[in-house]
């Protein structure tokens, strides 16, 4: 696949982030194609050779402790660009006890893409958020906790973690995001099936019935919550 130009990596916070997860020392490769300890979050932008005006920002998974940057990130660039879609991979910071940090990175990413919409041949109201596993939780967190400037126009979720409720959630993602003993308020806030409103963006959800790591009820419950609020949604 030939891109319109070589991918460009841009810092999210060139003047410093407004918050910190307390980590220092720079990122580390914890296993092949997986990184942790992100301290300088970025987006990598792949521009389609024949853009159709749409853009997708991908949030890789990794249980909120690491990022699977290739198979849940860069590896899909050629397919999306082949459809005319500008594809953006978000390298976001882990919460490390600061649950607001990943969301602030996702919000910043969509604002940057909107700011560059004209330059990158993107329609400012055709920018979606996508994520896999814990990255799906981050994507759907943005889709339910957005600010006026950061609302995605659609969401694409692959086998997403959605709930923080015990027995439903992915244990590692829950512990890393909201801690061992979160308050009921925090647990509810990040149980996204409980945060859907009629203004939540439309959704495409894909999961596997035999997934023993992220239980299918996460994506199914979110789909049903979207349908209850009359938000267009499809489940595969």
Which features does this protein show?
alpha/beta; 236 residues; 3-stranded antiparallel beta sheet; globular
Describe this structure in words.
The chain is of the alpha/beta class and 236 residues long. Helices cover 25% and strands 20% of the residues. It has six helices and eleven strands. The protein has helices spanning 77-82, 100-115, 134-144, 171-178, 184-189, 217-228; strands at residues 8-11, 28-31, 34-36, 42-46, 55-59, 67-68, 86-91, 127-132, 154-158, 202-206, 233-235. The strands form two sheets. Strands 1-4-7-5-8-9-10-11 form an eight-stranded mixed sheet. A three-stranded antiparallel sheet has the order 2-3-6, with no helix packed on it. Strand 2 and strand 3 form a beta hairpin. Helix 2 (100-115) packs across helix 3 (134-144). The chain is globular. The model has no long low-confidence stretch (mean pLDDT 96).
Helix content: 25-40%
Which structural category do the helix and sheet elements fall into?
A: alpha/beta
Radius of gyration: 17 Å
Oligomer: single chain
pLDDT < 50 runs, ≥5 residues: none
**Strand order within the widest beta sheet:** 1-4-7-5-8-9-10-11
* Mean of all residue-level pLDDT scores: 96
Q: Count of DSSP helices? A: 6
Distance linking N and C termini = 27 Å
Helix-strand pattern: EEEEEEHEHEHEHHEHE
**How much of the sequence is in beta strands?**
15-25%
Biggest β-sheet: count, sense, barrel?
A: 8 strands, mixed
Estimate the global geometry from the Cα principal axes.
globular
Number of strands: 11
């Amino acid at each position: 696949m030939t891109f319109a130009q070589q991918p460009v990596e841009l810092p999210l916070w060139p003047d410093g982030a407004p918050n910190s997860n307390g980590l220092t020392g720079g990122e580390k490769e914890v296993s092949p194609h997986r990184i942790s300890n992100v301290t300088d979050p970025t987006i990598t932008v792949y521009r389609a050779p024949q853009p159709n005006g749409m853009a997708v920002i991908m949030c890789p998974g990794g249980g909120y402790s690491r990022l699977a940057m290739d198979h849940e990130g860069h590896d899909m660039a050629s397919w999306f660009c082949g459809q005319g879609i500008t594809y953006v991979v978000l390298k976001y910071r882990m919460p490390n006890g600061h649950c607001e940090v990943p969301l602030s990175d996702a919000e910043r990413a969509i604002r940057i893409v909107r700011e560059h919409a004209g330059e990158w041949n993107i329609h400012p109201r055709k920018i979606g958020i996508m994520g896999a596993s814990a990255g799906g939780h981050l994507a759907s967190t943005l889709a339910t906790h957005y600010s006026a400037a950061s609302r995605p126009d659609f969401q694409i979720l692959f086998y997403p973690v959605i709930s923080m409720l015990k027995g439903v959630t992915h244990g590692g993602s829950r512990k890393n995001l909201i801690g061992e003993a979160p308050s009921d308020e925090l647990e509810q806030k990040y149980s996204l099936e409980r945060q859907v409103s009629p203004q939540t963006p439309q959704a495409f959800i894909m999961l596997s019935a035999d997934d023993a790591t992220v239980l299918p009820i996460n994506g199914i419950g979110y789909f049903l919550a979207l349908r209850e609020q009359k938000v267009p949604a499809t489940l595969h």
